[in-house]
Known about the structure:
Blueprint: H1 3-16, H2 19-36, H3 38-42, H4 47-80, H5 82-86, H6 93-122, H7 135-162, H8 165-188, H9 198-218, H10 224-229
Amino acid sequence: MNPMLTVARKEIAQLLHSRMSMLSTAFLAIFFAFTAAPAVTMDGGGLAILDQLLFSMVPVIGLFAGYIFASQIFLREKQQGVIETLLCTPLTVRQLWAGKVLGVTLLAWAMAMGAAILIVGFSRGSDGVLLLPSAPVIVHLAVAVPLFIVAGTGLLGLAQFILGMHQIQIVNVAVIFVLIFLLTLTQQLVNPEAGITWPVAGASFLAGHAALGGVWAAGRCLNTERIVTSLP
């Protein structure tokens, strides 16, 4: 089996057994879905607002979930000294990093899709009829959102691998601030006059692909010495 898949399966199993991480992430998804959905009916924009909320809010929820999970498997292993044992395995540092990122991404994307389903389920048109997202938005959620999550998680995991504990704390505060700001901004900028078209969905996919490529290139700086020297 591919070494990265082996690591990913291990991390998924570990995260699923972490009750606090799963509950806090599920609460986050439910909370933002519940607070966002009324905008579809109250603002009278119907499908256009639903599409915009799903298009912009779901990736941020996925990134937030990725942040919570990444802190569990990157930062906690570093604090507890588990990472030193993992570095002694036949896996390369990049395989270890990529496998962890893949495991986090799969769970975070599942949480994001759960939030999307809740937003759709809570939303109603002005006539009370259940609204369904347009095809470009569905493709965006299935294809582009995972790219943004894996890029964001990969960058965060990279930082938690190579930075010292004090620097990581600063990064964590900045990440939380930015994600909360983006979630708040998303709900404020919805515009019933603007729709999500195929070119918009295509541009989002290309942006996610570019972000992933940049993070993968940045992963070349990973090595055992950098990680060991950053241990507390």
